[in-house]
Amino acid sequence: MKPILPEHLLELAALLKDRVGLHVRRDGHAALRIAVAARLDELADVPDAGSYLALLRSEDAGDEELRRLLPLVTVGKTSFFRDERQFRALEAILPGLVARARGGGRPVSIWSAGCATGEEPYSIAMTAAEAGAGPEHVEILATDLNPEAIAFAAHGAYEPRRVRDIPEPFLSRHFDRDGDRYHVRPGLRRFIAAIRPHNLVSSIFPRPVSGGWDVIFCRNVIIYFDTPTTQGVLTQFHNALAPGGYLFLGYSESLFRLFEGFELTEVAGAFVYRRPETSGRVGAPAAALAGPVGPARPHLVPMPAQPPAVRHVAFAPPERAHTPVPLPSSLRGGAGAEPPLAPQEYLDGAVALFADGRFGAARELLERLLEKGGEDLAVRLTLANLYGILRQPDRARESYVAALALEPLCAEAHLFYGIHLLAAGNAEEAALELSRALFLDPDLALAHYYLGRCREAERDVVRARLAYRNAIEAHRRRPDGKRQAFLGYYPDVPEDGDAFARAAEYALAAL
Ligand SMILES: C[S@@+](CC[C@H](N)C(=O)[O-])C[C@H]1O[C@@H](n2cnc3c(N)ncnc32)[C@H](O)[C@@H]1O
């Protein structure tokens, strides 16, 4: 075991805070130690945690190593029914698959890859059970790199605060309370065929008993991989899925310009990737051809010269602005007979009001949702923007801080906070947030552009020029930008990046 001293963990926590805004509390140092030990195990030429810190700080390899460390550090970030839209999509997909299994066809096969402490696979199992499937119809595999997370998932016992996202009828149907823990009932556990360690950066990918996977969940995992690793993993997912099978990624994990094998499709309001019915295997990873011998560098899929068959989905506020949206009766002044709204309906309603210029009503709607416990990144970011517009800077700041506490590694949350701070005249803090956004997504042209504006405000002409050039270069690399659907409503920030590249050119010419 290579030495890791407590002061190294303190330094590392400070480095994570500084470089990506990730706040690791003292009680998280044990997890930090496990993460560093895992990286030290893999790095034969790094003798101890002190040298590991030096590696993280090095100019050439520091960023890449930090991206490798992050998923290990963020292992705890998961929850039951995380992104409920995706579970609604699964609910919509399941009946056809369950009918196949009931009719004597192969069982429905679902892989939760990067399952962390098990909340995701048990949520999948609950969704299947509620869709009328029996354990004999469904085969769920749950895997993760981290053996401790796997052991936790297999144990299946959760504190009350961790089960609060499970709707009440599901909680009493599928869990037994024993003291201060909720235990997964044997009936639900039978849906899970196996819970075991697996490294996605390896040459061997598990397969279901027969055929390919019907559904793969791999959410909030590839976001931390570098481009070649992501492309290798996606190649393997593509080949492991049955034709027509679905891939669920995290909301900020766009495959645009990254991988061309999937179609993007909308199911029950969520965007999911799908292996086309007619597609064959795509380029086999070189390591797989060499034989199943431990972790290997995955095969590189060439970047497509043309935009791939994946449709980039942009947020579309103008249509929404004219969509009649049900509002709570208190906002309509009605008699109070309105049915309760789902969190998404509040958000849709607030976006429609926002687009109509009714900022106060939009704010009120979102505040109500938060009072009801509808904590969500898109809600926090939209509300932060509203507070900014309504000239409530303190509340705007609080809302950005709350958004970043939910998703400290969301590049866009850092970007919007940076834009807000710059508008509030705080160029120095804005530059810090924008740098964090750029660490997490170096292609974010908008962030480069606003960083240029910060540097100008700081009268640092050399760094302002550099930032504007970076904005133009980032836009050239990825002309369609990376704004995602449902990540907060910012109608004043153009999504395509063109406007920013042009603005950066003008700014450069004027400097
Ligand atoms: C942020 S959690 C996501 C958990 C869950 N999928 C969700 O979205 O709620 C990321 C998980 O990915 C796992 N992970 C990171 N790198 C991995 C790899 N190379 N292979 C398998 N799992 C990995 C981490 O251990 C961690 O549990």
Total beta strands: 10
Radius of gyration: 23 Å
In round numbers, the mean pLDDT is: 81
Parts with pLDDT < 50 across at least 5 consecutive residues: 284-326, 333-338, 482-486
Looking at the structure, the CATH topology of the largest domain is Rossmann fold
Largest sheet: 7 strands, mixed
Total helical segments: 22
Helix content: 40-55%
CATH architectural category of the largest domain: 3-Layer(aba) Sandwich
| Spatial strand arrangement across the major sheet | 6-2-1-7-8-10-9
Structure description:
With 511 residues, the chain is of the alpha/beta class. It folds into 3 domains: 6-73, no CATH class; 84-290, Rossmann fold; 317-510, Tetratricopeptide repeat domain (Serine Threonine Protein Phosphatase 5, Tetratricopeptide repeat), CATH 1.25.40.10. It has 22 helices and 10 strands. A 7-stranded mixed beta sheet has the order 6-2-1-7-8-10-9. It has a 3-stranded antiparallel beta sheet with strand order 3-5-4. Helix 5 (84-102) crosses helix 6 (119-130). The structure holds S-adenosylmethionine. S-adenosylmethionine binds at residues 71, 74-75, 77-78, 82, 114-116, 120, 144-146, 149, 199-201, 219-221, 250. S-adenosylmethionine is lined by residues 71, 74-75, 77-78, 82, 114-116, 120, 144-146, 149, 199-201, 219-221, 250.
